[in-house]
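Sanity check record (used in CI):
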Amino acid sequence: MKRLSEIGVGKKAVITSFEKDDLFIKLMEMGCVPGEVVRVEQIAPLGDPISITVAGYNLSLRLNEADHIFVEEVQH
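Expected output for Ferrous iron transport protein A:
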């Protein structure tokens, strides 16, 4: 299992779980729910933030937010 912050550009992953903290509800409200497929679209030049596609729309996350999302990488 990896953290979303460890997934490279163009890679897809399935959300498996979250670290239990105050970001949990915020992330779920943004469409980051277990079982959802996410794709890393871009990583900013300095590495933060990252842009992902989830639930049919684009979302920017700070690396510290992406660190709280556990994923399983999907092979193409």
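The beta strands are 2-3, 12-18, 37-43, 50-54, 57-61, 69-74. If this sentence no longer matches the regenerated tokens, the check is flagged for review.
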